[in-house]
Design goal:
The protein has four helices and eight strands; from the N terminus they run ββββααββββαα. It is of the alpha+beta class. The chain is globular.
Length: 179
Amino acid sequence: MLGFVHPIIALEQSKFQGGLLVLNQSGDPVEFRCTVPVRTTRLQQILWGQRLVAHVLGQLILRPLIQSAKTQIAVVLVEREEFLPVRGDLSVPLLLIRRQDHPSDRIQSPNTVTIAHVSPGKEALLLQSAWGFEEDLEVGCRLVSEFLKTCHPLEAFQRIEQALHILKPKLEEQVRVTG
């Protein structure tokens, strides 16, 4: 099972929300979880400074979503690098995934690998691990390569974003009632 975590960030409102979508190897949804909107205070913004986004995404969105999952997840894929520092707090591999857009992306580092798309002419994908967790790349490469045979992994992030937009009014109402 592959877990995908995607945030919606409204910096002008200091509001963050995230979703976890667990898919099987065929791309079928197995589990979906989301956070209620997280609103940071002016004091938090000052104290955390430029580290605020990484803190909220990692500690208040990704970690709780993964810990609350009922399904056994083999690897978690994210699109934002700010999630990677949380890897040390997780028992599951965590990888950044993105399109290989530029020729400079072909430069390999110990924590980055390229996965060629199974269909000729399609863009390759890059997987990046957190520093010190390069072993996550082995399982990630194998699972993402297999997943590419039936579904494009980046499409899962679009599913999460659309689901969060549908749920947004209900979740914001829930926060008003309980907050």
